[in-house]
Amino acid sequence: MNRITVFCGSSFGTEEIYKEQAILLGQTLAKQNIELVYGGANVGLMGAVADGVLNAGGKAIGVLPNFLRSKEIAHLGLTELILVESMHERKTKMNDLCDGVIALPGGFGTLEELFEMLTWAQLGLHKKPIAILNINGFYDSLIELTETMVEKGLLKDVNQKMLLVSDNIDDLLDQMKNYVPPTVGKWIDKGKV
What biological-process GO terms show up in the record (predicted)? Predict the structure, then answer.
């Protein structure tokens, strides 16, 4: 993997460990010569992961919609800052630039980005690993919900297993490097209907 997109909050949240792990993830990416692709801001966990990469000598590419420049204050120390016109263009560009995705703690935006990437993978639009760094159990309830989706027949088990999860950065990156995408398609074969 040459580049990983990280989705995360533009605030720090209530637990110091979120910031600590964001910085450590950035440092680890730099040490493994993996470039960061992220939302381009210098605030919250977004800024922390970028600073972790940059301070360890790595490369960080930000993708920021023009209308967020004043709200998410663009990070001025990035290797590259790409300005786009819309949130959809932002996600598309981040997907185009990366070989995999990691979600850190975040709010609605982080979840929306994570689930769009999962949906694209489920539909076969890409075969990239998608992972959650489950810091201090932040995503436990979400993981349980995806298991409920399988139990209730609304999500295939093979698609639920596309979501890689760990609370350890090195383990998560190893899972991503060894990821094998599912071969089962989302759609029912018309010949069998």
Answer: cytokinin biosynthetic process
Per-residue pLDDT of the chain (193 residues; tens, 9 = 90+): 999 999 999 999 999 999 999 999 999 999 999 999 999 999 999 999 999 999 999 999 999 998 877 665 888 899 999 999 998 999 999 999 999 999 999 999 999 999 999 999 999 999 999 999 999 999 999 999 999 999 999 999 999 999 999 999 999 999 999 999 988 665 544 444 3
Among 49, 161, 32, CA closest to 103: 49
Interatomic CA distance for residues 193 and 190, integer angstroms: 5
Delimit the domains of the chain by residue range. Answer: 1-175
- Residues 178, 160: Cα–Cα separation, whole Å: 17
177 phi, psi to nearest 5 deg: -65, -25
Architecture of domain 1-175: 3-Layer(aba) Sandwich (3.40)
Helices (H), ranges, 43-183: 44-55, 87-97, 108-122, 140-151, 157-160, 169-177
- In this prediction the pTM is 0.92
CB atoms within 10 A of CB 140: 12
